[in-house]
User: What shape does this take?
Amino acid sequence: MPIETPTTSAVAAEALSKRSRGGSRGNPLRHGESRAGWLFVSPALLILLVFFLLPVLAALWVSVSNWTGKGSPLRADFVGLRNYSTLLVKPGLAQKDLATSLRNNLYYVLLVVPLQTVLALTLALSVNRRRLLGKGFFRTAFYFPSVTSSVAISIVFLFLFNAVGVVNAFLAWFGIHGPNWFADPRGVLHLLLGALGMDTNDPPAWLVDHRFMGLTWWDWLSGPSVAMCAIIFLAIWTTAGTFMLMFLAALQDVPDDVIEAASVDGANSWQTLRKVILPSLRPTMYLVITLGLIGTWQVFDQIYVMSKGDPSKTTLTPAYLSYQTSFISGKWGQGAAIAFILFVIIVIFSLIQRFVMRDRTTLPRRRRIATWEGSKR
Amino acid sequence: MSTAISGRATSGPATAPMAPGRGAARRSGWLIYLVLIFFALLYIYPFVIQVGTAFKTNEDATANPLNPIPQTWTLNAFRALGQVDFPLWFANSVIVTLCVTLGRVFFDSLAGYALARLHFRGRAAVTGAIVAILAVPGVVLLIPKYLVLVQLGLYNNYGGLIIPLLADAAGVFIMRQFFLSIPAEIEEAARVDGASVFRTFWSVVLPMARPALITLTILSFQGSWNELAHFIVAAQDPDLNTLTKGTAVLVSGQLGSGAQFPLKMAAALLMTIPVAVVFFIFQRYFVRGATAGAVKG
Assistant: This one.
């Protein structure tokens, strides 16, 4: 499959083109290529510049202006960083809403990214068995939700999780009275603390007295609301399939004899997994987590269809807040500023992840042997 | 290291030491099937319920949510959809998806080819710009896209729905990688024979790129059919609603509080069918696209 393994041939092609570049002036084959080259890229480039690069610049301007949505944004006044300070520093509703949305999305990210990665890896390892009956069937089943529309899936989940829906009917079999999912703003961590005997109606004073970005520490510690949990299930369920395919592609590159050698060496399957398979999946793991982080910080579709930020703003996310602030409340400068704050957060998270997952230069001894043995054969 | 090899040499032919290992493998084999079947149920059952509920009556849907088989089969949900502009949304989605898919396949492969093969001043800069665009999170562009559409007079018309989606950075990148991976000799032979650059591209290169073109077609089809955010910011006129937007508004607006689940399921079902059909026919290319889509990050 040419697309999946472009690297080696890409390097070769690059080398080839470098060699020919030397004589490009005299080469009649290169004649007219400059014009053709620009002609070929210009339609795509024009669209990308006009609808990606230009908008980013325009929004950057709007985020430091007082544009109200009427007339040309160029005629709006420059207000400096006022929109940003209203959102980040100045006590008020705008600051509190942004803090709430960041809190909601943070819990969403912290739960969805690890769980979907683990689920994807589990599914991939299970499906990757050589003699597995119905391999194609399982792979299709797990991947199918990833290709269907987020709107359709959201609608199905609205039904599954409604008060008298499928999930609660299922829970009733076990005598559990399920919550009214999409109307329940209670934070899961608060519920947990309540179950442990803490009086959640009267939390400790030091948690209530301290605030960060207009939100009390107690509110920051709420955990995802019950409503958000339903959306978290949806996200994990939908995206795991795509990442499973990425893991599967990587697993196919782990040579069988390395795994065999490990088991001959007396490693049990858990050791083989930890010491041989997982290390070779490192690059894919990195990719999956990066894509996961970028994707989860941008939840929009599901919120738009399922909750619009309700109940009690506990499913509000920065992406949706940005949309709502601009398109519904007409505060375009603020909305654009939220988008850029979100952008910075995504960059920061990617950097943190890069730092945490950076390559350790010294490999554990045993692993070095395993890979060496693998490459030797 | 040396023990591994000697261990292998001695225990290889003898079956006795291997036996316990195989037994364990078989036991964990059962476990794997159990896990897989559990998850398969978890993944398939929601779709089964979706199909079943679409043919139920409202009362049946809320009374027996777990049972996917309707007590009385009815097409009421689908009839009701006929009365809420659903056919119009469907037609809009078809128009937009067709244009976007054709545009992306053509423009992305043109650009991808130029970036991979043609030598022109500024090629590195263009490639860099496209990689940079790949890195911009889409949601950040919601508001800015609206600004630009309004300024260009593309707000609230088909142009605004279609034109911004006509090329995508990921597609250009996928095509570039593909063209880099195939040998250049054949096209160079064509060029020596005197064919123009476009001619060579059109009748020599594109036919060779069939697998990549199919992958790109499918990615574009799926992407534009399922797109929601862009349609929300690009138009306001209800006559320009696509399936995703129309249904999203319907579900959260008029029907938000009511529990007309069969109607909602029917809408979701009709929206899913075209993608499902394409998926089951071209599954292999979907799989390839998902792994190629890795460059999207």
